Amino acid sequence: MEEEEEEGIVVSPLISEQQTRHEESASDFIGELIGEAKQQLNLALPLIAVNILQYCLQVISIMFVGHLGELPLSSASMATSFASVTGFSVLLGMGSALETLAGQAYGAKQYHMLGIYTQRAILVLLSFSIPLSFIWFYTSTILISFGQDQDISIGAGVFNCWMIPGLFPYGILQCLNRFLQTQNTVIPMMISSGIAALLHIFICWLFVFKIELGIKGAALANAISYWINVLLLALYIKFSSACSKTFMGFSREAFDNLLGFLKLAIPSAIMICFEYWSFEMVVLLSGLLPNPKLETSVLSISLNTCWMVYMISVGLGGAISTRVSNELGAGRPQCARRAVRVAAGIAILEGAIVGTTTILVRRVWGKLYSNNKEVIRYVEKIMPLLALSDFLDGFQCVLSGAARGCGWQKLCAFINLGAYYVVGIPCAVIFAFVFHIGGLGLWMGIICGLSIQAIALLMINLCTNWDKEVKKAMDGVQN
Q1: Residues 248, 285: one domain?
Q2: φ/ψ of residue 290, rounded to 5
Q3: Which residues fall within 8 angstroms of residue 254, CB to CB, at 6 or more apart?
Q4: Model pTM?
Q5: Between 20 and 30 A from 26 (CA), which of 64, 81, 283, 406?
Q6: Do 191 and 264 share a domain, yes or no?
């Protein structure tokens, strides 16, 4: 008995100590997850605001043009869609290459390289803006050749010609945004975007109604507001102590290895464009359905709704891209892996909230866009599909952000090509035109594409050797 009691006295503290260690390790693990989540949300929330405010510039312009009549509104809407496909999405994609390069350089404490990478990106994007501006100049000719209404196409051509001066600051803005984002400096971006958006309302009113430039004034207002945003960010970068280590003035090194930047920037652009273009293609396909006015109206409402929600996903994607690139550059593979897992959890939670909200407002959402009962009923039918697509889009957007942080743009371009153009669009055509499901079928095809994309990205992340990614990132920074 005494031996057993003595053994009990000896064993008891050991068990207690093991339990304490287990509880401490569990507590540390939970604390790390909470800390990572806070860090990502501190990045993501301002980035969401930035994306919404910058997206609002085009929306505000179209709202002002809408008061000029039906034809100007149709022209401005088509012009904006054409500009997004042929210009904005290309520059947005190319600028996202900085999320890999600048993010990893910042993590590796190669601070001076952020300024050099950013200057290099600005040079490349400005160069690409020149041929893109020629495409915008011939907008009306291109649209008419594709069988679009002549009057609407001519108006769209006028709008885009006057918006050409905005193409160049838009490209610079993508670079400055990434420069600040990758060093976790996001509040100045939010403030500058907010100032530009507020001024944009006044500029639109001044040019559209006061000076009576009409549709031309709305397009020119876009250009001016982009330049204002660029100027505000440039002044902050120049004079802020927060950027003193990362921007040390203009450097000739920016002209070096332009080809190396293009090798990452072009797949980045293709990756983004493949996804953006597929959604626009669905709206174009809706015009071939029976009752095209109804189908196109409902699909346009659906697309606008998705783009609004997408701004949240883009913010989350930008945050995880920054976290992953910073951790890889710093040589911390476990931290990078943990960041991806936390981001996936946040995306699932956000998707569930947005999806539930979308379903709950399905009966009233159509009334915000139209008084037509047929349109309202159709929107109500398609909203559950939008809820599912919003959930999948949010999840894949976060995984795509992690991929950009790792520099997997070329691989993601192939994934997006297969997901949307081998699976998504063909399924949309089959559902809509073979099974005669109409606009619902088109959106079901998009959901198929999103599902394939999300599954492929998830499998890649699960199979990733993060130690190898760290080595690759550190080799890239040194080169």
Answers
A1: no
A2: -60, 145
A3: 116, 119, 120, 122, 123
A4: 0.86
A5: 406
A6: no
